[in-house]
Write a structure and sequence with these properties.
By secondary structure, the chain is mainly α. The chain is 72% helix and 6% strand. A two-stranded antiparallel ribbon has the order 1-2. The longest helix is centred in the middle third of the chain and has 26 residues. The protein starts with a helix and ends in a 10-residue tail after the last helix.
Length: 236
Amino acid sequence: MWDRLTGTQPDPPWWLVILVALVALAAVLHGRTWRVSRNVVTIAHEGGHALVALLTGRKLDGIKLHSDTSGVTVSRGKPHGPGMVFTALAGYLTPPLLGLLFAVLLAFGKITLLLWVSLALLAAMLVMIRNAYGALSVLVTGAVVFGVSWFAGPTLQAAFAYLAACFLLLAGTRPVIELQRMRSRRMAPTSDADQLAHLTGVPGLTWVMLFTAVALGSLALGALLLAPDTPPLPGV
């Protein structure tokens, strides 16, 4: 098992990388598919809040995930200061940065390690879930990852790992666009951006622009890392 975790696995064929990238893009752009796949983004979003809350010394009370793909992470500590700022900042940054981390692991051929890191993160998050739908979402996601990592062959594992990385990278921007759309209609007065504006005095739009820059930057770097080596054209 240790050799599998620390070893490298072969890259999938170039056409499979392109195929799973297109599938990931379709999952982000297609409305009905997005309403389901967005649950994965919410898990990463709330997991980011929770992890940073713990790292900054706050006490984590629990996480709730809802069927409308919203979520809430409750922590205790000082209502102001760096710990609260970084905790609020982490949510929208986590999905694209996690996708970038996955892309780095895949660039080094660490497909098995990626899958088991994902399982470890989901297991740690499950402990802090405080509602039934949230527990179901994390358990189903974990079961899929475990099934692929334990029962699937190398090609399917590689395809799944690349799909996860591509999806997180591509999905990083759409929630930010949705956030700003809701803010412009005054439908999200307690959003992460508005909480950060209250905590720091920096306008909420500035935080939205930061979220967008991180998402697009992660996507660009991740695309460079995941770009397949295509075969040369005939006669070249």
